[in-house]
Amino acid sequence: ARTATVWKNLNPFWGEEYTLHLPMGFHNLSFYVLDEDTIGHDDAIGKISLSKDFISSHSRGIDSWINLSPVDPNEEVQGEISVELQVVEESHKRVLCCHVIEARDLAPRDTSGTSDPFARVLWNGQVLETAVSIKTRFPRWDELLEFVLEEGTAGETPLIVEVWDWDMVGKNDFLGRVEFSLDALQKAPVKGWYRLLPFTSTEGDAGGKLGALRLRVRLAEDRILPSRYYQPLIDLLVESVMCPSEEDVTPLALLEEVCSLESRQDVATKLVKIFLGQGLVLPFLDYVNLREVSRTTDPNTLFRSNSLASKSMEQFMKVVGMPYLHEVLKAIINRIFEEKKYVELDPCKIEPSRTRRISFKSSLSEAQIRESSLEVLTGYLGDIVESIVSSTEKCPPIMRVAFKQLHKRVDDHFPEAENQDAKYIAISGFLFLRFFAPAILTPKLFNLRDQHADTQTSRTLLLLAKAVQSIGNLGLQLGHGKEQWMEPLHPFILSSIGQVKEFLDWLINVDSSEKKPWTLFHPSATIKEGYLNKRKAEGLHLVSRFTFKKRYFWLSNESLSYSKSPEWQVRTSIPVQQICAVERVDENAFQQSHMMQITTRENGGQLSTMYIQCKNVNELNQWLSAIRKVMVSNDCLLPFCHPGAFRGSRWTCCLQTDRAVRGCSRTHSAVTLGDWSDPLDPDTEAQMVYRQLLLGRDKLRCSWKGSQGPSSPAPCNAASFCPMWDSNPQP
User: Fold this and answer.
1) Band of the pLDDT at 618, cuts 50, 70, 90?
2) Which part of the chain is the C2 domain (predicted)?
3) Where are the beta strands (DSSP E) in 556-614?
4) According to the model, what pLDDT value does residue 721 have?
5) What angle do CA 509, 314, 319 make, to 5 degrees?
6) Beta-strand (E) ranges in 206-302?
7) Which of 70, 276, 548, 551 is the most exposed place for a label (fewest CB within 10 A)?
8) 651 vs 114, 406, 494, 647, 709, CA distance in Å?
9) How far apart are CA 260 and CA 695, in angstroms?
10) 246-286, pLDDT tens digit by residue?
11) By three-state DSSP, how is residue 26 classified?
12) How distant is the alpha carbon of residue 514 from its chain centre?
């Protein structure tokens, strides 16, 4: 994962959050801070490396400033080596036989994106080396190196296997090492793949001289059981919604009680996805919203806290409404970024020297700057409001029905004439304050832009977000805050309220009587789309960049298709079920960066590979992740692949001459980036909910016992999931 670049700043703020789905056996999580250079390679400023054990030891997660450490080439190692080691008796002597077979996924040390690796075996002051494999990260040596063990040889002397990158000029580069105990080898031989490790570090962080990075890291590691183990929990959650108790003692109510404030957003997201999977997300939202409304006496405080209801509605909008958000705001946000106009209304922050973009004459006065800024802001606001209020038909029907339910619950609970706006504010509070305004404030976090805004554009977005919030509040708080300098925008805000109310009336004017299950996405709905450069596997002897053709791609749960342009009628389509692997391609394969390969198995069983180039590393990560998610259930997944290309009668990665030889690198189908378009995973989502119940089981038991009475529900329902607590105390 890669953040956006913050330009010309030694105190950058990113505020970016990534969810990384990783294999259970990962070892380290590393963060590199780099200085981006337009020409040449980026410069490494420093790094932070956190071991899996260190992260796991912080049950509530890590949230702190951590000093950067220097980037030491001797620590930048990766990959594995395959060796076979044994001690054998030969003619009255003992011989330590070291069969160095091969290595894979070594770190690239040369500018071409490869290395020239050789293995070095050290024992008791003796050194033996293999031959050098030229230009490969997947060398195969298959060499036998032997040491004669003298009588009385100390068993504690370790056997060390190192891998180095040979350089014709200068010193060789370290690629990793593995240590073996001679005592253990004398008892039993070893054979297998071993992870390469760095030299033991002799220095810690730089004492803050390189700067520090504030990180918030939390590891959630669960073992997911078969679906049948979670069905009792799913049944309890569904029962809460479909047959709510009058005493409000339901599993969902108890879950909210034992759930910590920090985990409430995660719980809300998982519950939304569980009920989407059950086709019952609307009854679920209606249930939590009704509980929230029933407990509220002052309509001005409705949904203002981080309750389960408010978090569930917020996450629901992000899960189902992101395409809608992009359609409404993307064009306007792009224009604001491109125009880079200087605006400011706060007299304390006006900088006359920055107004040359407004006038080529002498600097403008403060009044002129405010007048010009007001004109620009009202222009942008007008476009934003117009785009929102004309988006009724673009809004997903499931969102419209959810808002209709909410409107009715609030109207029933607050029927008084003085509270007539409460039903509008309940909807606009979610749609404007928790959806549109945050996206305007930080477009990067909603994937509306690839980069963060510069300081000037950020200020424009902040002022627009404040105005949109005021519009969402129907102008009720105008003039009561400290920011009196926003007053010039008040007339526009007040004039927009009528439009917003009319829009909300039309938004909830939707038929909700049809009793059908509401699901997340139609299988043919587009998950990701955009221009990519495509190259076929055939004709790989032509390395010219002109062999790559620009094509427009669409990805859905059913197919990956492409054509010359979005408007082109003829499309080539690949069924998702035929995709066997999607992996990165080494840079040296085509002398091109940011490349991936999609391997498919055609109906006849033959494998076919398509090579695609993305415009940057972020786009590459997003496409890799999106395709891996839709193919996760395929039966034809490959365990190995070639990260290079077959060119010049051999593979560029492992140098094998057999085109059909098994791949030299493992595939990475389990590594994905979490985002709004993640497919539903009911077992994983139920496990996370169960973990929250497990953490609060003592409080849960007290709450349940305290709720027992003559009119309480039958205890068998509430206890039906309890056996897991005793039979499986650790998830």
Assistant:
1) confident
2) 1-66, 77-194
3) 559-563, 572-575, 579-585, 595-601, 607-613
4) 41
5) 85
6) 212-217
7) 70
8) 13, 60, 67, 6, 73
9) 10
10) 666 788 888 888 888 878 888 999 999 999 888 899 999 99
11) coil
12) 36
Would you give the end-to-end CA distance of the chain in angstroms?
A: 28
pLDDT above 90 for 639: yes
Number of Cβ within 10 Å of residue 439's Cβ equals 25
* Interval 133-152 mean pLDDT: 90
Residues 336 and 452 grouped into a single domain:
yes
**Whole-Å CA distances, 496 to 261, 404, 471, 484:** 35, 22, 7, 19
Q: Taking residues 18-31, what's their average pLDDT? A: 86
CA angle 384, 387, 388 (to 5 degrees): 85
Note if the pTM is more than 0.90.
no
Kindly report the CA angle at 258 between 257 and 260, in degrees rounded to 5?
Answer: 100
Range of the domain at 497: 227-351+365-508
CA-closest candidate to residue 504, choices 435, 429, 416: 429
Coil, strand or helix: which one is 555? strand
556-603-670 Cα angle (round to 5) = 50
Burial of 633 (0-12, 13-18, 19+ CB in 10 A): exposed
Q: Identify residue 212 by its one-letter amino acid code.
A: A
**In this model, does residue 725 exceed pLDDT 50?**
no
Whether residues 480 and 532 share a domain: the answer is no
Domain shared by 552 and 438, yes or no: no
Q: The domain spanning residue 342 has which CATH number?
A: 1.10.506.10
Which tokens in the block code for residue 460? 């424009």
Do 333 and 482 lie in a common domain?
A: yes
Return the CA Rg of the chain: 30
User: Among residues 259, 267, 291, 307, which one has the least CA distance to residue 699?
Assistant: 259
The length of the chain is 731
Q: Is residue 707 part of a domain?
A: no
For CA atoms 347, 351, 354, 359, the dihedral sign is: positive
Cα 593 to Cα 22, 103, 165, 667: the distances in Å are 24, 23, 22, 19
Hunting for tokens 């800024």 — which residue is that? 373
> CB neighbours of 188 closer than 8 A, spacing ≥ 6?
none
Boundary-marking domain end, from 482, 508, 534 = 508
Contact 510, 397 (CB under 8 A): yes
CB-based burial, 46-59: b 16+ in 10 Å, e otherwise = bbbebebeebeeee
Looking at residue 721, the DSSP 8-state letter turns out to be T
Do residue 85 and residue 168 come from a single domain? Answer: yes
Per-residue pLDDT band at 642 (split at 50, 70, 90)? very high
Pair 477, 470: CB distance under 8 Å: yes
Query: Which tokens go with 424?
Result: 């509008």
Q: Is 66 found in the same domain as 87?
A: no
At 70-127, the pLDDT tens digits run 988 778 899 999 999 999 887 778 899 999 999 999 999 887 788 999 999 999 889 9
Tokens linked to 152: 């009385």
Whether residue 517 is contained in a domain is answered as: no
